[in-house]
Amino acid sequence: NFEAFQDSLSDGSYGPAMITLPAGQFRMGDLNQQGDDNEKPIQTIKLAAPFSLSRFEVTFAEYDRFAQATGRPLPDDNGWGREQQPVINVSWQDARDYAAWLAQETRQPYRLPTEAEWEYAARAGTESAYWWGNELSPERAVCDECGTEWDGKRPAAVGSLAPNPWGIYDLNGNVDEWVQDCYAET
User: Fold this and answer.
1) Where are the beta strands (DSSP E) in 64-159?
2) Dihedrals φ, ψ of 143, to 5°?
3) Low-confidence residues of the chain, pLDDT below 70?
4) Model pTM?
């Protein structure tokens, strides 16, 4: 098990549920010839220090608290609801600003994860295409044909499906996540 925690915000409420992942090494990229060209070449990545990642996708409830505190407009929920739904319709800059606000509120070093940190967390110590294996598996992710009630219709509320072995939810499917790095074709 990994260390889980929530930092206090300045108003006495709590920030997102976080989990600390260990330093480690992994092979990043298309290890199973199922990905895109931009997932090559395969690289060995060493993460020299532990880091923390939100256990869940950022919810509308969490993001709305930030938006209201900073005078930003609330993002559109496409009619799917707010609260425990993963926030959508936010830009990379919005996501960075949210992380900077969390850092200011908690006095802890919040930021978006790097692409390597995100993939390390998503793989959860495996070398398969998904943490559970190389094939889509019913009820493991929300996507067009993953076997859930939400497939191709709308995102599921965060944490609706099982976490990966490291205790992190929804890294495969549901909604896209932003990472710190800028996109490069390689």
Assistant:
1) none
2) -155, -170
3) 1, 185-186
4) 0.93
